[in-house]
Amino acid sequence: MITREMLIRFDELNRRKKDLEAELDKLKDMFHQYFDTAVGQNEKGEVKIDSYRLQRQIRRTEKFDPEATVKRLEELNLPELILKRPDESKIKSALDLQFLKEADLEGCRISKTTAALLIKKLD
User: Coiled-coil annotation: which residues (predicted)?
Assistant: First the structure.
């Protein structure tokens, strides 16, 4: 059974959650600004303060831009490398087997960089 008290408690916790998330976002922004200044944008870094260690890790992912890649593969007359979107595993195999050159796909890759923060209490 759902009670009024449960709804009140849920509402209260939800508001606190939003406040906590906003504060966490501010701290994350400050940490990223610190690392951007100390080690450079999109660079990993680490700082130890007392018994805490703060690390910034950088993850990079690369994908083929579907529109540009399909167009380029059609221009190169390689429809077998196209499904409804570029077949990345077949494209990678074609590159490995040198049926395709990296230069053939210039401008077709999309790179994404993600920064992650880790805080660990040291023993």
Answer: 3-37
